[in-house]
Amino acid sequence: MKPTSISAIFMLFWALSFFLVLPFRLQSRDGNSGPIRGQAESAPPSFSFGRTAKWTTVVALVLFGLYYANYVNGWIPVEDFDLVHAAHADGQ
């Protein structure tokens, strides 16, 4: 696999992982501090992009590592995902 392919696929895993990690570790607002004017009641009181990016990178590395190990070892071949061809073969 080319380095450009590796980096592009990793970026896809990173973007997917960002949305998976985003809802975790959110803290609800305590009773004493109200929302800032113009802010939704459901908005988190603070958000740390650095912490979220760190956890996203860890999750993306694990997921990409599993993907690459499957690519090298061929545990789940591409043919297992060929649902269109399997549907046509059953109909004939």
Write the layout of secondary structure elements.
Elements: H1 3-21, H2 49-73, H3 83-91
Helix pairs in contact: 1-2
Q: Could you please describe the fold and organization of this structure?
A:
The chain has 92 residues and is mainly alpha-helical. The protein has one domain. It has 3 helices and no strands. The chain has helices spanning 3-21, 49-73, 83-91. The radius of gyration is 21 Å and the shape is elongated. The two termini are 37 Å apart.
Structure described in brief:
The protein has 92 residues and is mainly alpha-helical. The protein is built from 3 helices and no strands.
Helix/strand structural class: mainly alpha
Strand content: under 5%
Shape: elongated
Q: pLDDT under 50 segments (min length 5)?
A: none
Number of helices: 3
Q: How far apart are the termini?
A: 37 Å
How many domains would you count in the coordinates? 1
Largest sheet: none
Helix-residue proportion:
55-70%
How many individual β-strands?
A: 0
Order of helices and strands: HHH
Radius of gyration (Å) = 21 Å
